[in-house]
Amino acid sequence: MAARHATLLVHAELEVDAGEKTALAKLALALSTRGLHDRRVLGAIETLPRSLFVAAPHRDRSLTDRPVPIECGQTSDAPSVAALAYQAAGIAPEHRVLEIGTGSGWGTAILAGLCTKVYTVERFRTLADLARERFATLGLDNVVPTVHDGLEGFPRHAPFHRIVLDGAIEEVPATLLDQLAPQGVLVAAVGPEGGRQVLARFTRTDKGFAREDLGPTRRVALIPGRAAAL
Q1: Which residues, 6+ apart, have CB-to-CB distance to 108 below 8 Å?
Q2: Which residues, 6 or more positions from 15, have their beta carbon under 8 angstroms from its beta carbon?
C-alpha cells in the first residue's frame, strides 16, 4: 500500500514534470522535520501531484506547505496541517475511513493510498464534481464520494474504523462519534474559527469515548448543512 500512488500514476499515465517531482520530494522532507514521521503519509505526499487539485494560477503555491485557494470560495489546508491529522488517526491498510470535507480531493487521494476504502462527504456540489474528475484521472477506485451535510456523517456505510474531519468544529457531534466502530478513532481540530484550536483524537472504548489533545492546530471551520448553491 505504501507505493499505491506511484502505481496509480503509472496506470493513469499522468505526466509529472521533473520540477514538480523535486518540489514534492522537498515538501515531504520539510514535513518530516515538522513532526510528520508516518512514512506512508510522507510517501503519499511525495508521489501525489498536488498541482492536479488546484487552479492554474495557484500551482506554484501548491508545491509548498501553504494553504491554497480552491473553488466555491474555499481553501485547501497546508499539507502539514492535514497530514498531521492523518498521522494522528493511525490509518491502516485494512481500514474503512470516513472523511468530512472533500474539498479539492487532495486529502481524499492521500487517504485512498493509506486504506482500503474512503467515504468522503462534501457540502458543495461543485467541489464534489471536480473532485470526482480528479479521482477518475488518478484511477482511484476505492473512493465513495457524496454530497450532503458532513456533520451527519455517512450512516448507511457506518461503522468506520477512522473518521477524519478536514476542518474545525467547536464540538464533535454525537452523530459522528456514534458512527465509529469499536476501538475506532475520530480526529478533528476542536475550537472556534480564528480562536484557539487543538488537534483532538477521540477513541471509542467499552466505556464511551476517550479524548486526547495532541497540540495546537489551525483549520477553517466546518459549516453545517448542504450548500444551497454551488
Answers
A1: 99, 102, 118, 120, 131, 135, 143, 145
A2: none
Q: Are strands 160-169 and 180-190 parallel, antiparallel or unpaired?
A: parallel
For the record, the C-alpha cell of 151 comes out as 456533520
3-state SS record for 122-189: ECCHHHHHHHHHHHHHHCCCCEEEEECCHHHCCHHHCCEEEEEEEEEECCCCHHHHCCEEEEEEEEEE
Query: What is the per-residue pLDDT across 42-97, written as a single tens digit (0 to 9) for each?
Result: 999 999 999 999 988 888 888 899 999 999 999 999 999 999 999 999 999 999 99
Length, in residues, of the chain: 230
Quote the cell numbers at residue 25.
Answer: 520530494
Do residues 109 and 83 make contact, with C-beta atoms less than 8 angstroms apart? no
Q: What is the pTM of this model?
A: 0.92
Instruction: Give the cell for residue 31.
Output: 514535513
199 phi/psi in degrees, rounded to 5 = -80, 115
Alpha helices (runs of H) in the chain, residue ranges in sequence order: 4-12, 18-32, 39-47, 79-89, 106-112, 125-138, 174-177
Distance CA 109, CA 106 (A): 5
